[in-house]
Every structure is written in structure tokens, then in C-alpha cells.
Design a protein that fits this description.
Elements lengths: L10 H18 L1 H12 L5 H11 L7 H16 L6 E3 L2 E3 L1 H10 L5 H6 L9
Antiparallel strand pairs: 1-2
Length: about 120
């Protein structure tokens, strides 16, 4: 279902539903987000409109490789000093199993290898 420009939600409407959109998108994905917002709020927007807002608000669900390398580098630096680590990226906790999986696929198994990764710390970490 396409939404015409004249019936497209205004910026104020997007701002009103921003938190709800973020929550549903992160948990359920785009398809369920559209259905839920139309069904529960009467808020109708196209996939493209949602994708544009999600990109502008920087609420993507995926962790980029450079962000993960920075997390692994920081985790290794803290491990050397004996400090435990928990990470949040874009206001969402990064699960330990995702960090471990990336470390294995990137073959960054030792602390020394992880520290040598020259990834800059991304904003929001």
C-alpha cells in the first residue's frame, strides 16, 4: 500500500511516535512495524518513509564490522586491567554472544590480536 505525498505523516506525527517506532522496529522488524502502527495507531506510511526515518534516526539493528572491532578492542583493553565490560550501541545493549561470534569469525581470539585492531571508537558506544 503506497501513501501519497498529501496524506504522508507530518514531521510532528513522526516525532510523536518515534519511541514506539524504535521499539517495535528493533523487536519485530519493518513489516510488523507497519502493520502494528496502522492497526494500533492509525499511522500509515510507506516502507520507504519508514526506512528513511530509521536511517535518519540511526536506529539500525545491525552492528557494523568497524563498530564490533572497536568493541572487541575496548573489551580486550579492559580485560587486561581486570575490568568487566558491557557495551551499549545506539542505546541498545550488545549481547556477549554477538561479540564472541564476531571475534571467532574475524579470528581475533587472543587479547593481543584484539588490541592491535585499529578501529576507532564509534559515536554512541
Amino acid at each position: 500500500m503506497e501513501v501519497s505525498r498529501s496524506s504522508a505523516p507530518k514531521a510532528e506525527e513522526w516525532d510523536l511516535y518515534r519511541k514506539k517506532i524504535q521499539t517495535i522496529y528493533r523487536k519485530e522488524g519493518l513489516k510488523e512495524l507497519r502493520l502494528a502502527m496502522t492497526r494500533d495507531q492509525g499511522f500509515t506510511a510507506s516502507d520507504r518513509m519508514y526506512k528513511t526515518r530509521i536511517r535518519n534516526w540511526k536506529i539500525g539493528k545491525n552492528i557494523k564490522a568497524e563498530e564490533m572491532r572497536a568493541i572487541i578492542r575496548k573489551q580486550a583493553q579492559r580485560a587486561i586491567t581486570g575490568k568487566p565490560s558491557a557495551f551499549r550501541l545506539r542505546d541498545v545493549e550488545v549481547p556477549e554472544h554477538k561479540i564472541d561470534r564476531f571475534r571467532k569469525t574475524a579470528r581475533l581470539l587472543s587479547l593481543e590480536q584484539a588490541i592491535r585492531v585499529g578501529a576507532a571508537t564509534p559515536p554512541g558506544l
